[in-house]
Amino acid sequence: MTGQQVSQLRRRQPEGDVQLPAEMPALLRRLYHLRGITAASELERGASALLPWQALNGIESAAALLHQAILSGQRIVVVGDFDADGATSTALSLLALRAMGTENVTFLVPNRFEDGYGLSPEVVEQAKTLGAELILTVDNGISSHAGVALANQYHIPVVITDHHLPGDTLPEAAAIVNPNLTGCSFPSRALAGVGVAFYLMLALRARLRDHNGFADRPQPNLAELLDLVALGTVADVVPLDANNRILVWQGLQRIRAGKCRPGIRALLEVANRPSSRLVASDLGFALGPRLNAAGRLDDMSVGVSLLLTDDIQQARMLASELDALNQTRKEIEQGMQAEALSLCDSLVQQHQQLPHGLAFYHPQWHQGVVGIVASRLKERFHRPVFAFAPAGDGTLKGSGRSVPGLHLRDVLERLDTLNPGVVLKFGGHAMAAGLSLQEDQFETFRQQFALIAGEWLDAAQLQGIIWSDGELTGSELTLQTAEILREAGPWGQAFPEPVFDGKFRLLQQRLVGERHLKLMLEPVGGGPLLDGIAFNIDTRLWPDNSVQQAEIAYKLDINEFRGQRNVQLLIEHLWPVT
Question: Is residue 87 within a helix (H) or strand (E), and if so which, with residue range?
């Protein structure tokens, strides 16, 4: 946001030859071309254009195991993850399995603070206590070698569904479905955990249909679960490639039409988001954090229960509980971020400039919030960041966020190779990763991470860049344009919401809510008077009433207040024009 040390604005450049319909609005043709879209087929949003489930390696074996478990009445335990993707994956799997003929299914979500990540041996013991005769992992499991080995000792087959990057070896599971496995023929590597779970349920339904499994019950309409797929996909910030855009768009349409889970409706209510005008960013910034708060501070079972319930009153009660947890998370995060900024100031005083890679630890930090703090600091300083908190047993739990050009899991692998024993365990992917280490190894880790980041990144990659789609003319700064942009998505990771730039006169400026800058603007080249809002600004820089003009990077938005709808600029950054 505007408090970041953003150094420059760059405009996107077209990719490839464009063959989009001539009747498409010129602005949309431009925006899609700038995102590498070259043909109308890439913009298809109908469910019939989804990639076929048959292309996922291992999916038929996984469906066969689930089918057999249903036929024989075996107890299935779904093991999820403690984030929004894991919660939606878990709820979707339970709802689908029940709709396909089994009530002998329950779920288990690891406790972040007691069980560790994924299908750990501790979680297998809990599943065994629940009577598990088959374990289905969702959004985890690809690195759970020890847990799968223990389950095998207990003769409990494990079906893994995951989307995280695998290591050099795979767990000895009965079946594995993961689009990121080497040799997997599925055209999209970008499925979230909930997307993989959804595809497995499609395969299971097809198998049941082929084996006369719906002779005594209606065949379930799995499209009814696409609201969960949309929420988990956006909240997990996976790339919105063509296939994921279809999944998200279909889910959004169901939510807008009021055909969503009561839990999602209750989350919309506490977030004060009208379902009829929902966009993908609402899932990421309003619903996702509230759902994630359960796994960060408490127990994600609350979040799964919210998504499973058919009772709107119970859903409202659980959503209020999550909303309160999210408020507590924000307060904890603000304190941790302030402490981290103070540590940054100390680093600058010692070294004159910040290292290329940053690592922070504080003995009072909360391990459920370190990922968010790492993300905020990465955005502020444009460097890869790890934040650590004590796990209570002499070890530290860390979460990292990276910048384009630095594959975080590869960095950890390199660091582990060069410094055996420093890192106890690690996992993740290019932009996010997690690890644990002994407390007395933190300083070694900090130094080695900075060293490798310094070798792998150059100065240009550390510059904060706002990417723009160019200018809008005065005649394009309208409610109609904003409506077209709102419906042209879904926008998200790797298919970014349009950002424009231009020079504006600052006619009025005032702080609201202590940290937000409210502006009245006029385009320098002529155009309508416009409202603008810049959230979380650096109050040391703004408002500066001596500045009469600014170059502004913004998103074109619609402000709805008391039945009135007006164009509003959501300001990403301001550069004073003197």
Answer: helix 84-99
